[in-house]
Amino acid sequence: MQAYAAKLIDLIELKAENIAKQWATDVMKHNRTPSYSSLPQDRVIERGVKFYRLFRQMSLADNSYEAAKTFSLRYAQECHRDKIPLHEAIYALILLRRNLWLYAEFQGVFVTALEKQQAVESLNRTILMYDYVSYQVIEKYQELINDDVDKKLGSIKTMMMNTPISGMKSIYKSGLMGILLLGACILTYYYHATLGTGVIFTHLLYIPIILASIWWGKKGIFVAIFLGVLILTSHALFLKAVPFVDDIIRALMFVVIGGVVGWLMDGIKKIEDLYKATI
């Protein structure tokens, strides 16, 4: 290791807490990192100390990229936990690097009569560490965001029956929907033709309508249309003495509910696909 690089590393390690305090003051007041202003100062300083002490670990490690991972993963997790946006977390890293060089310059490390090559080596080491950490933080942050999305959409994804094998998924959905529609036809006939009433049972028809919209998005509205036509046709055949208005309203509500849920599900799928594309 060049003498200049060793001198810079010794300074960073010896004065890590002082530099971290300077960084904490900067990052907690900076207009590009407002989320840090609400954090306890001690926590921010500790985060800075860990970053500056990473410099020697990376310099001595056989694989500096792997050596940076411990800090990077923890930094990303802590920022995510503290609800700090990714762009602020990265700009805080920029300020970490800036405060390191400002402190070193203030201490007179750069005014000694050393060869330019030695100075360039130290600068390159600092930039390399920053590049590794930035990449790893972004990678981990994206993973944490995707995990959050998966957790929040967990119940919906379960209802969507997202099995690993797409062919089996399609068969399960189609088969189950066929059973539900057959059950709807039987119920409609039983209540209209046998009992002579259309009250209560029609609420059960929302089950296949909602499932179809969740599974197939806007295309699921065809199930709602089918069930709406079913109750109107059955009413015309078996409930001629009963006013038609109630079942017309029910049929219209089937279509409205199916359309709204399908539209929402298409939006959710687009968001999910967007996140997957960034992995």
In words, what does this structure look like?
This protein is an all-alpha fold and 279 residues long. The protein has 2 domains: 3-152, Histidine kinase N-terminal domain (Globin-like, Orthogonal Bundle), CATH 1.10.490.70; 156-277. It is built from 11 helices and no strands. The longest helix has 37 residues, at 116-152. It is rod-shaped and about 95 Å long. The model has no long low-confidence stretch (mean pLDDT 81).
* Average pLDDT taken over every residue: 81
Q: Rounded to an integer, what's the Rg over CA atoms?
A: 31 Å
The dominant shape is rod-shaped
The level-1 CATH class of the largest domain: Mainly Alpha
Say how many strands there are: 0
CATH architecture of the largest domain: Orthogonal Bundle
CATH topology of the largest domain: Globin-like
Relevant CATH superfamily of the largest domain: Histidine kinase N-terminal domain
Largest sheet: none
Helix content: over 70%
Number of helices: 11
The assigned structural class equals: mainly alpha
Total count of domains: 2
Q: What is the string of SSEs from the N terminus onward?
A: HHHHHHHHHHH
- The parts where pLDDT drops under 50 for at least 5 residues are none
The rounded distance between the terminal residues' Cα atoms is 37 Å
